[in-house]
Design goal:
Layout (H helix, E strand, L loop, with lengths): L2 H29 L8 H20 L11 H21 L10 H29 L2 H6 L3 H18 L3 H22 L2 H6 L1
Helix pairs in contact: 1-2, 1-3, 2-3, 2-7, 3-4, 4-6
Length: 193
């Protein structure tokens, strides 16, 4: 079996669990509308995470260019995708009986949530370098600036409990991510074909 195929399957399984976790958590609001009150900022983070997971799967396609794999490279990639699963689990815990609603839950767990988001933005640097310095350099100044700015926002979010800040932050993250994906993968050209 080709090494990348093996890695691709492990990434795909973990990614599938992550997406399934988000979908299952979101569908509970439809299944049981009177049980727990949703919180818009929380739901937007769920949307952002879904978008991030889909982008991650596309982003990892560049791993096909790696000709020589080592265990620790493989292990790092697995830890990176596992970090995303942890974020999904933090967004939708098994139950929130100890909390009033998702707003209360979100703010009580924000330090954990944004710590794991911070890890993801740091890991993204390493993951991109694994694909090669040429690939890393091809992304230009925006890629490192993007990750550093996102990391700073996450560190601030750990320490700030202001609902308006968190709402604006997630909206900015979603809008930026959509624009970044569109520019990075030249969506216009793809849609014409």
């Amino acid at each position: 079996m080709e090494v990348f195929s093996h890695i691709k399957y492990v990434i795909g399984i973990t990614l599938s669990f992550s997406i399934a976790h988000l979908l299952r958590g979101t569908v509970k609001f439809i299944q049981h509308p009177n049980r727990v009150k949703p919180y818009i900022t929380h739901l937007l983070w769920v949307l952002y995470m879904f978008l991030t997971l889909v982008h991650f799967w596309w982003w990892e396609f560049k791993l096909t260019g790696i000709t020589e794999w080592h265990f620790f490279t493989y292990f790092f990639i697995i830890l990176y995708i596992t970090n995303y699963y942890v974020i999904c689990s933090l967004l939708y815990p098994d139950d929130i009986n100890d909390y009033k609603d998702y707003k209360d839950y979100y703010f009580s767990r924000r330090k954990w949530l944004f710590s794991f988001f911070s890890i993801a933005f740091c890991a993204d640097f390493i993951d991109t370098l694994i694909k090669g310095k040429t690939y890393f350099d091809s992304l230009g100044w925006e890629f490192p600036a993007r990750n550093i700015i996102h990391l700073v926002f996450c560190i601030v979010a750990i320490n700030i409990k202001n609902p308006k800040f968190h709402f604006v932050m997630v909206v900015l993250f979603i809008v930026y991510e959509l624009c970044y994906i569109a520019r990075l993968y030249d969506i216009e050209t793809v849609l014409k074909h």
